[in-house]
Design goal:
heterodimer, A: 422 residues, alpha/beta, TIM Barrel, eight-stranded parallel beta sheet, two-stranded antiparallel ribbon, 16 helices, globular, B: 298 residues, alpha+beta, Protein Transport Mog1p, Chain A, 2 domains, seven-stranded antiparallel beta sheet, 9 helices, 15 strands, 31% strand, elongated
Chain lengths: 422, 298
């Protein structure tokens, strides 16, 4: 069945900065990733002269500093050599970033530096017909042979632009559905390229991390997965469990969107631009989980490079970083339901508001409509969304300033068009 | 089915959500203006296959994945997307309102390669592998065609769209004041923020020049005023002192420096009024280039 929201499947990140958790999570003794924030060192640190921490990338045998470079936004050639100088050893690009100009820049710089054998290069190829509008992709079909031919053509273009004979990691780019991950044409092309020695390791990049990891583990073909991992998933124990499971099975894990949009487009509800300390805090939060090999933050200035790479050798939170992660106002403004249940007595209809808020999170932030529907279906009879129709508008006030009424209206709208069934 | 999809899409776009701050119930004035660009009757006998959709900086990634980030960096205001069918060809139309002619040029140039086949549409356009992209005023238009006759349809459609935009079919005025000799064709760029990786240098224009087999780049950063330009030169000086080497270059003129480091290479830089001019990777003749460029901006 065509998913109406196929164009919206990146809703996982729809409001990433608006889902920052705060002290209610951090104060808990059992945090996801099992890391405490306040005062305690969170992970092994590099010794000596701020050397970066290295981690193995699954079973690939590759060892990488925990901070790498997502090149996609950078059109500053000097950033790559400077990154290399500071210790970055992995550069991530993609065939369609800036219509190939991004790969050209990476290729030119790596060649000038003469360090091809010292760095890990990844690129990505999109499926055919990815005409920017994902709903278009959904309705067109391509034969296995067409998909394979397309993949090979694009990848050969990548090698040419990169001025390389091979790449270390090749991603099946933006594989946000099981179909795309299992695509025969793509898999045939990728495995053949690996046999030919043009690719060392096969990978998937996806904005649907739970689905992607499950499918990758089932298939047993992909070596690496690139997924969004950031503070907004702090409460998602299911996802964290799957991440750990994938890591145990030897899948190399690379994190993107680690700074939840970053300073470039901070959520205006946060009230102020994200500070450098908040940027490094968010990155440290991800990397304090040692099943994540490396993160690929996108940076465009030398200042951001230095800021990000400082995390590579120091995962301990500074006072300012701890303060940011513990700021209740951040969480309140970001409208993240912390499941405290204090709203329940205010509802005249006895609606299970926390579960509805959780459903909303799955539907909107994760674009996981089936999980959202499941969550709503699990609500006790008479306490679900239908009960909300007894009130003209929601009268409940959240102690943490979550706009419960707006979220309920949104759920009603989604339900009325059949996406969710209350 | 497609109509239902489009209605549902619009419903989702317009539903009141705490997260979707940019999605308004009714199109604003700019959107109305953009919709006129694709009002029927459409050129080349094209018909829309579903309703147009709009994306803003907050949700552009839903349409473009990671490629959206650079558009956001360049200050995109709106994207109008529509899919059309013209006889046997399918056309994907993206009209980016980049907010200003400069940022539209910047985004257009960021994706432009000297290898493309350039055509005179709007301020400039090019064709490449089923694409036809062009720039005009504050719009960056990207067209993608599939199927029989797509190439012809693309050009017809692009010219008609350009006529509908109507305004400002010219590249940024400052570029015409820079030296023409030895200029590498189609190398001009505009960076609204962080040119050369330095926030204090934004915004800036860049043009590449070729001398023999060496390429240099001339950057012209636009400061608020002469004092701000001086401050930028000072910051640049401090950066190079910290990371490499920097010294005054009085032989090149007042307020001029010569600098270098291991990752940016060599630079000569000079202020002229509100402009800070830099030549990166100076080649033979670059000193004269700097002087000529500065004189042209006086």
């Amino acid at each position: 069945m065509t998913n109406f929201y196929s164009w919206n499947r990146r809703g996982f990140l729809a409001r990433v900065t608006s889902a920052l958790a705060a002290s209610p999570l951090l104060g808990s003794s059992k945090l996801l990733f099992g890391q405490l924030v306040k005062g305690a060192p969170a992970a092994p640190q590099a010794e000596g002269n701020a050397k970066p921490i290295y981690r193995k990338l699954g079973k690939t045998g590759i060892s990488l500093p925990i901070v790498s470079m997502g090149v996609m936004n950078a059109d500053v050639p000097g950033l790559l050599p400077r990154s290399y100088e500071l210790g970055v050893r992995h550069f991530d690009t993609a065939a369609h970033y800036q219509q190939g100009r991004n790969e050209e820049m990476v290729g030119r710089m790596i060649k000038q530096l003469g360090v091809r054998d010292k760095v890990v290069i990844s690129t990505k190829v999109l499926p055919p017909g990815w005409s920017r509008d994902r709903s278009q992709t959904q309705t067109q079909t391509y034969s296995t042979a067409e998909v394979k031919a397309h993949f090979n053509e694009v990848f050969e273009g990548s090698l040419k632009r990169l001025q390389m004979d091979y790449v270390d990691i090749l991603y099946n780019h933006a594989a946000d559905s099981e179909t795309e991950i299992h695509s025969e044409g793509t898999l045939e092309a990728m495995t053949a390229l690996k046999k030919e020695g043009k690719v060392r390791f096969l990978a998937v990049s996806s904005h649907q991390p739970e689905m992607a990891l499950k499918e990758v583990m089932k298939l047993g073909v992909y070596d690496v997965v690139l997924i969004p991992i950031n503070y907004t998933i702090a409460r998602d124990e299911g996802l964290m469990k799957i991440i750990d499971e994938a890591a145990k099975k030897g899948i190399g894990l690379v994190a993107m969107k680690t700074q939840a949009g970053g300073a470039k487009r901070p959520d205006p509800k946060l009230g102020k631009p994200l500070t450098p300390a908040s940027q490094t805090a968010l990155l440290k939060w991800v990397l304090n989980h040692d099943t994540i090999t490396t993160a690929i933050p996108g940076y465009t200035t030398y200042e951001q490079l230095e800021q990000n790479f400082s995390v590579a050798s120091n995962l301990t939170y500074s006072a300012e970083e701890s303060e940011f992660l513990s700021d209740k106002n951040v969480a309140a403004n970001a409208q993240f339901c912390v499941q405290c249940g204090k709203c329940l007595p205010d509802c005249p209809s006895g609606v299970d508001i926390p579960q509805l808020m959780r459903s909303h999170m799955y539907a909107v932030q994760y674009s996981n409509h089936s999980l959202a529907a499941e969550t709503m279906a699990a609500i006790a009879s008479g306490k679900g969304l239908a009960a909300c129709s007894r009130c003209e508008s929601c009268r409940v006030t959240c102690r943490n300033s979550v706009n419960i009424g707006a979220k309920i209206e949104h759920l009603k709208a989604l339900s009325s068009i059949g996406v969710l069934k209350a | 089915m497609l109509r239902s999809l489009s209605l549902l899409s619009i419903l989702v776009l317009t539903s009141a959500g705490a997260f979707a701050a940019k999605r308004t119930a009714k199109p604003d004035a700019i959107r109305q203006e953009m919709l006129k660009l694709i009002a029927e009757p459409l050129p080349a006998g094209a018909v829309a296959t579903h309703s147009a959709s709009f994306y803003g900086p907050d949700n552009l990634y839903e349409y473009m994945d990671g490629a959206a980030d650079i558009f956001v960096l360049y200050g995109v205001h709106q994207l109008l997307h529509v899919d059309l069918r013209a006889k046997a060809a399918d056309i994907s139309v993206d009209v980016f309102d980049m907010g200003s002619a400069d940022t539209a040029f910047g985004m257009y140039a960021a994706e432009r390669s000297p290898d493309f086949q350039f055509i005179a549409i709007g301020a400039e356009g090019y064709r490449y592998e089923g694409m036809l992209n062009f720039l005009q005023d504050r719009y960056y238009v990207k067209l993608l065609g599939f199927g029989d006759g797509a190439d012809t349809v693309l050009e017809t459609f692009a010219r008609a769209l350009s006529a509908r935009i109507g305004t400002n079919p010219a590249l940024p005025a400052l570029l015409s004041k820079l030296p023409a000799d030895n200029r590498k064709p189609h190398s001009e760029q505009y960076m609204p923020a962080d040119p050369l990786g330095h926030p204090f240098l934004g915004p800036a224009y860049m043009v590449a020049y070729v001398s023999g087999n060496q390429e240099s780049k001339l950057f012209v950063t636009v400061a608020r005023d002469a004092a701000d330009a001086q401050m930028r030169l000072k910051q640049l000086e401090q950066h190079f002192i910290k990371t490499g080497h920097c010294e005054p270059a009085p032989e090149l003129g007042e307020r001029t420096i010569r600098a270098s480091n291991s990752f940016e290479g060599s630079v000569i830089a000079q202020t002229k009024g509100r402009y800070l001019l830099l030549v990166v990777n100076p080649a033979k003749g670059s000193e004269q280039l700097l002087k000529t460029a500065a004189a042209g901006l006086a």
